[in-house]
Design brief:
11 strands; Aldehyde Dehydrogenase, Chain A, domain 1; globular; Aldehyde Dehydrogenase, Chain A, domain 2; 341 residues; alpha/beta
Length: 341
């Protein structure tokens, strides 16, 4: 449990602040302006996507859920706080915010480097926390890091190798590409299939927790997957998504790949976890126990598993982009890492 109640209360107040936002209040004019700037800088950051991120984080940052999360920890006051260099990915709205709230509650300090197309929303969140608590914790930079004690960096497999080369001598958490997967058994309810559709389509499928690969039993009716995806049919109206859909469909056709499509998403039988935008990979299985062993062996490539089957750490359908506070990226306890510096 954290000893800094001012920081905890500021976090709860931020959660309330995000929940109350609906895009229309005059008191939120500065935030609405930032949302417009965020969308202008990155057209994947639509108003609906940002509103979803606000809603999910607002619900997560209730006092009860924060206290439940922090209960196992004994966070000590920092007489000489360390400076942690944080590099964020910027693929979906507020990605990396969990790292920032872990840093906030730990009592360490941060120098943050944002993705070039995601420079508006996170500084608003951290400025809110600092103003409410009266404590300074975060600074932002676009320059090379200097004077830091540890690193938390998230990026692609290529950038991950760069991070390891330059930051390997420091205490670090370095994250690379991972994907969400789902395992079905053919007995899923309509509601669970709609939840799976959300896990695939929220944020246009760009998050590391989005389901990009499903495992289905032999004989599974793929029309059930399309049925769960149908509520997201309007996604094809988004120009950037539509361009990716058309491009990837053309590549599949020219390559003579077998695939199914419904006008806004393609299903392709493929063993790889990572699928192109507007595509979902699937693979059949005949033996659940063997599949379970395979998933365990490939866990370093998997961010989360969505299923109602007895799989270790599996989460319910529809929850891939609504992680609990104790669900750390890559399974690495960020708060313990920061506390141990």
């Amino acid at each position: 449990m954290t000893s800094n109640l001012k920081r905890l209360k500021a976090l709860v107040k931020l959660g309330d602040h995000l929940l109350q936002y609906n895009g229309e209040q005059s008191s939120y004019r500065s935030l609405s302006n930032l949302i417009e700037k965020a969308n202008a800088a990155n057209s994947w950051f639509t108003a609906n996507s940002i509103q979803k991120a606000f809603s999910d984080w607002g619900n997560a940052l209730s006092e009860k859920r924060i206290l439940n999360w922090l209960e196992p920890y004994e966070i000590r006051p920092k007489n000489n706080p360390k400076n942690v260099a944080i590099i964020l990915a910027g693929n979906i709205p507020l990605v990396g915010f969990h790292d920032l709230i872990c840093l906030w509650l730990s009592g360490q300090n941060a120098t943050v480097k944002l993705a070039s197309k995601d420079t508006h929303l996170l500084p608003y969140m951290t400025a809110f926390l600092e103003q409410e608590s009266g404590e300074k914790c975060f600074q932002y930079t676009s320059e090379p890091f200097t004077n830091f004690d540890a690193v938390i960096a998230t990026g692609s497999n290529n950038s991950g190798r760069y991070f390891e080369h330059y930051f390997g001598a420091y205490p670090n958490i370095i994250r690379k590409n991972r994907n969400g997967v789902a395992v079905l058994n053919g007995k899923e309810s309509d509601q669970e299939l709609i939840g799976l559709g959300n896990d695939v389509m929220h944020y246009f499928g760009l998050g590391c927790r989005n389901v990009s690969k499903i495992y289905i039993p032999n004989g599974f009716d793929l029309d059930l997957i399309f049925g769960g995806l149908y509520p997201h049919a309007e996604v094809i109206q988004h120009a950037k998504y539509a361009n990716n859909y058309d491009y990837n469909k053309a590549v599949f056709l020219m390559s003579e790949f077998d695939f199914l499509e419904n006008g806004f998403l393609m299903l392709k039988n493929d063993a790889s976890f990572s699928a192109p935008i507007a595509c979902l990979h699937y693979e059949y299985y005949s033996d659940f126990e063997e599949l379970n062993k395979e998933l365990h062996a490939m866990s370093e490539n998997i961010q989360c598993i969505v299923s109602n089957l007895p799989i270790k750490d599996a989460i319910p359908f529809g929850k891939a982009q609504q992680p609990e506070l104790h669900e750390y990226a890559d399974g690495i306890d960020t708060l313990t890492f920061l506390e141990d510096l």
